Each structure stands twice: as C-alpha cells, then as structure tokens.
Amino acid sequence: MQFTYKYSSPIGGITIASDGESLTGLWFDGQKYFANTLDSRHKEIILPIFEQTCEWLDIYFKGQCPGFTPSLHLSGTPFRMMVWEILQKIPYGETITYKEISEEIIRQKNLKYMSPQAVGGAVGHNPISIIVPCHRVVGSSGSLTGYAGGVSKKVELMKLEHMDTSVFFVPMQGSAL
C-alpha cells in the first residue's frame, strides 16, 4: 500500500508519496510525469516520514539548507538509479550540467560515450523532486531546460538556494542546445 500527503509550498501544491517507511515520490501538482510511480490505490494520511519531509520542505522554502535528508526509497532502472545517485551529491546552491553527469557515468562505468540526452531523460523522470535536486542540472551552455515541474519553478528553486539566475537563460522553443 502506498500513502500520500499534500503539502502547500510558496510556489505550488506538492504531492508526497511513501511506502509507509520511506519517501517514494514528491511532485509539484500537475508536473510532467506527475505521480508516475504512485499506485492507483493509495491512501492519504499523515505518517512520520511525511512530518519529516514537511519539516525539510519548510526549512528549504525559507531559503535554508535543511541539513538532513528524509529516508528515500527510489525505484528505477540501474541507469536511472545511477543518475539519481549523482543528483543527490550536487551541493545546495550549486549546479552541474547534463554533460558533467554523463562524464561521471563514463568514468564510473569505464565507457567510451554516454549521451547527455539519455541523462536528461533520467533526470526528468526523477520521482522525488527538490530533495533529489534535479533542478540543479543545467545545459552546458547555461540553459535552464529539462525540469518536469516547469522552468519557472526551476528558477524559483534556484533563487531559494541563493543562486544568481541571471547567468542562466531559457532557450527558445525548438532551439538546439
């Protein structure tokens, strides 16, 4: 059985999911891939993991680094799990590029090549937004792309982390990166 809880953030509603012990999902309501790891049968209740996650979010939305991470249970392909593990290592207030993630996978797996686009697909399917900080990933050119919650939310999250968002840009629809 899966469980859910609704959180109201300053930048939109958030649905949080759990298996009863750990966090399994965190999505902005209506975002791309919303609740794609959530069973159709779930129950909305308050659990200790939700209380801890809400505490984390309260601190985060005050513009502070929470300093702890709720218990997470990510589930995906080995490739996605590898990408999500790298995401979890991006420091608060810093960014990394899709290319840098692909280079890290090349290094770890001793590969000749890894597509930044494949990395982008894995980043976009991250089921635990914000806490697994996919919003900290940018294009090599400094473009703000690929956030399932929408670029405007990505910018707001970066501002909360005291990043200078003026150094980034939003590419025009259909432009190459």
Automatic annotation (TrEMBL):
Main location: cytoplasm
Superkingdom of the source species: Bacteria
SUPFAM superfamilies recorded: Methylated DNA-protein cysteine methyltransferase domain, Methylated DNA-protein cysteine methyltransferase, C-terminal domain
Domain Methylguanine DNA methyltransferase ribonuclease-like: 6-64
Domain Methylated-DNA-[protein]-cysteine S-methyltransferase DNA binding: 78-162
The protein's Enzyme Commission number: 2.1.1.63
Pfam families the record matches: DNA_binding_1, Methyltransf_1N
Keywords: Cytoplasm, DNA damage, DNA repair, Methyltransferase, Transferase
Active site, per annotation: C134
Residue spans crossing the bilayer: none
Compartment(s): Cytoplasm
Entries under PANTHER family matching the protein: METHYLATED-DNA--PROTEIN-CYSTEINE METHYLTRANSFERASE
Purpose of the protein: Involved in the cellular defense against the biological effects of O6-methylguanine (O6-MeG) and O4-methylthymine (O4-MeT) in DNA. Repairs the methylated nucleobase in DNA by stoichiometrically transferring the methyl group to a cysteine residue in the enzyme. This is a suicide reaction: the enzyme is irreversibly inactivated.
Additional free-text comment from the UniProt record: This enzyme catalyzes only one turnover and therefore is not strictly catalytic. According to one definition, an enzyme is a biocatalyst that acts repeatedly and over many reaction cycles.
Record protein name field: Methylated-DNA--protein-cysteine methyltransferase
